[in-house]
Each structure stands twice: as C-alpha cells, then as structure tokens.
Write a structure and sequence with these properties.
The protein has 69 residues and is an alpha+beta fold. Helix content is 23%, strand content 20%. It is elongated, with a radius of gyration of 12 Å.
Amino acid sequence: MFRVMVLDNCIGCGICWTICPKGVLVGKLRVKAMVVSEEQCMGCFSCQYNCPFSAIIVKVNPEEAKKSP
C-alpha cells in the first residue's frame, strides 16, 4: 500500500535500514540504501522522518489505495 523511494542524495548512513521495523530497506555503509520488501511497509514513516539527508520518501501507492475497501 505504500511506495518507498530512496533518492540519489542517499549516502548510505544506515539509519533507515536500522530503524525500519519491517526490514523494507537494506544497505551497506556508504552505499545508497535499497528497497527490498516494499510490500512489508506499514507506513510508520520512521525512515523518512529520521533521514538526515531527506533521501527517503514514503507515499501511499494510489493504485493500491483504490483496491482497499
């Protein structure tokens, strides 16, 4: 239901993949984070709110929102 995007200004600090309770993001230090299980995102926005570089964006996926009752 949520769309998770990692922008090019990600520096691989590790905060997002460390703080994510569902393991949506993974990475290596100093390498841009990767979204690996977007379907697990529960929309807590922890990754977005805690990124010091504003490199993570979480949005409601409009295609999925239409399918929800």
